[in-house]
Backbone:
């Protein structure tokens, strides 16, 4: 802190022609009182400036502490949300893999059921062919039997 130079008070030299002044007045006492008053005011101003500066520093330090606490509180929530987001993303990937595996299994099942349906159709076609052949054989056998009896 700087300390400005105090102005020096000028004293008035009593004029012998002026009759308004009283002979008992002590001009040095008034000047000393004024200088003391100015010096006291200057010291009080410096003290006030120091207290203001300390209060300002304390306020800045407290504001920084509050700011840090607020940032920590907000970051705690953000960090928790980030962890939850990562956990959800991992679960999504796991579910996507499971879905892909189930899709492959379903495709295999569809292929197997299609093959079974085709086989059943073929069996049905074969059975139908066998019935037709049996009917034809019976017809031929009946015709031969009729020819043989006639």
Residues:
């Amino acid at each position: 802190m700087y300390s400005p130079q105090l102005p020096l008070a000028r004293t008035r030299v009593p004029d012998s022609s002026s009759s308004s002044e009283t002979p008992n007045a002590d001009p040095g006492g008034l000047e000393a009182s004024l200088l003391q008053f100015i010096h006291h005011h200057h010291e009080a101003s410096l003290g006030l400036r120091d207290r203001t500066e300390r209060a300002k520093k304390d306020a800045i330090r407290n504001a920084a502490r509050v700011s840090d606490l607020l940032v920590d509180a907000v970051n705690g929530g953000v960090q928790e949300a980030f962890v939850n987001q990562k956990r959800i993303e991992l679960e999504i990937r796991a579910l996507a893999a499971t879905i892909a595996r189930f899709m492959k299994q379903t495709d295999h099942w569809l292929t197997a059921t299609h093959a079974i349906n085709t086989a059943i159709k073929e069996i049905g076609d074969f059975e139908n062919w066998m019935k037709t052949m049996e009917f034809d054989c019976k017809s031929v056998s009946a015709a031969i039997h009729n020819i043989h009896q006639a």
Remarks:
- Residues 27-149 form the longest helix (123 residues).
